[in-house]
Write a structure and sequence with these properties.
Shape: elongated
Distance between the termini: 56 Å
Largest sheet: none
Mean pLDDT: 88
Radius of gyration: 24 Å
Structural class: mainly alpha
Strand content: under 5%
């Protein structure tokens, strides 16, 4: 089994793609132990082989999941992802919000108005006023970033 080191280019690539298996030592399937082709650090490959083992080879889901170091819910999620979008669907997606959902255009306009009236206002005071006006708790740094983004858009 290949070692997980910082100098290993494959481990670095898997980490950057967010598909580095956090527990490669839990993969006990014989294929992964006996072949250089199968890499227990590659989470996409592990999930694919786990689903294939159950669907093609007829192994029970609980045995397949255990042999690949994953849970039964992980098996069913991987199975649904494969059915929905094939192998690319097993690639992990970036987590977290996709955009600024608390500081939408109405809130940023409000912040701009407050700043135009009093340019000495600090981000913490602006964040507090957003909470009072819109009922949204925002971090002062988020306010700073939203105003900076807005500033780049306006000439």
């Amino acid at each position: 089994m290949p070692k997980k080191t910082r100098s290993d280019p494959k481990a670095v690539a898997l980490r950057q793609a967010n598909s580095l298996n956090p527990h490669p030592n839990k993969v006990v399937d014989p294929l992964f132990a006996s072949s250089d082709f199968f890499d227990p650090r590659d989470l996409v490959q592990v999930k694919y082989e786990m689903v294939r083992r159950a669907q093609v080879d007829g192994e029970p889901v609980s045995h397949s999941a255990a042999a690949f170091g994953l849970s039964r819910p992980s098996f069913y999620q991987a199975q649904a992802s494969l059915a929905r979008g094939g192998l690319p669907a097993l690639l992990p997606r970036k987590r977290g919000p996709r955009r600024s959902h608390k500081l939408d255009s109405d809130v940023v306009s409000f912040l701009r108005q407050k700043l135009s009236k009093d340019p000495s206002l600090k981000a913490s005071e602006l964040a507090r006023s957003v909470g009072e006006r819109f009922g949204r708790k925002v971090h002062p740094r988020s306010v700073e970033r939203a105003l900076a983004r807005q500033g780049k858009k306006t000439p």
